[in-house]
Amino acid sequence: MSLTPETTSDEQLVTVGTFTDLAGAGLAKSALESAGIPALLRSANANSLMPFAFESQVQVRVSDESAARELLESAEDTPPTEAEVTAAEETQETLSEEGTED
């Protein structure tokens, strides 16, 4: 389940990760969503144009912050699975085709 700017207009979001590479941001978002934590990827378009000038942020609802941070910290020590890599690649392709909130 993904969060979108439209579905989160009344909700408070918090950034749980910042990435200079879009692939890393996509992996983090996919890992969170695989664990049932809805996530939003911000600034992906700007990052894809000038990766080292702009960072992409992965955001979650405030109520999911602790679980999201714990999951991302544990994921740093574990290589991504093939399914996570595929999901991240699909996220990156979708962002390239449709764009995202900047």
From TrEMBL:
Tell me one Pfam family matched here.
Answer: DUF2007
Source superkingdom:
Bacteria
Membrane-traversing stretches: none
Bias (Low complexity): 77-89
Region named Disordered: 65-102
- Give the DUF2007 domain ranges: 15-76
* InterPro entries xrefs: DUF2007 (IPR018551), N-reg_PII-like_a/b (IPR011322)
Compositional bias, Acidic residues, is annotated for 90-102
Q: What is this protein called?
A: Putative signal transducing protein
Tell me which species this is from: Bryocella elongata
Organism lineage string: Bacteria, Pseudomonadati, Acidobacteriota, Terriglobia, Terriglobales
